[in-house]
Amino acid sequence: MECYRIKTSRDDDDDATYTTSGSVRGCCGHRHRTLGAAVACLRRDQDGCASQGGYSDRDIIRSDGNPLTEGERFGIDEIFDRLWKMH
Ligand SMILES: [Zn+2]
């Protein structure tokens, strides 16, 4: 399955979308519009793997193939922090 597509000149959509991918687990196949949705998807996969005694090697990546910006990485950390405190 293709995890992300390379932007073409016809693609005017500048809104970054995110997906999750790992070499073992593959990609989730979604295009999440927000970091929060991508984190939620990642956690669902981690929980699913944990219930089967494994773990998820997925990571959040940008659907356009560009590396995450520092701000985006910070945002992901913040979301994980907030989720952690809820438990
Ligand atoms: Zn997903």
What does this 3D model show about the protein?
With 87 residues, the chain is α+β, with helices and mostly antiparallel strands. The chain has two helices and three strands; from the N terminus they run ββαβα. A three-stranded antiparallel beta sheet has the order 2-1-3, with helices on one face. The radius of gyration is 14 Å and the shape is globular. The mean pLDDT is 86. Zinc ion is lined by residues 20, 28, 30, 32, 41. Zinc ion binds next to loops.
**Which stretches are poorly predicted, pLDDT < 50 over at least 5 residues?**
none
**Major β-sheet annotation:** 3 strands, antiparallel
Structural class: alpha+beta
Oligomer: single chain
* Estimated share of beta-strand residues: 5-15%
What's the rounded overall pLDDT mean? 86
The total count of strands amounts to: 3
Bound molecules: zinc ion
What is the share of helical residues? 25-40%
Number of helices: 2
Strand numbers in spatial order across the main sheet? 2-1-3
The secondary-structure element order is EEHEH
The end-to-end distance, rounded to whole angstroms, is: 34 Å
Radius of gyration: 14 Å
Shape: globular
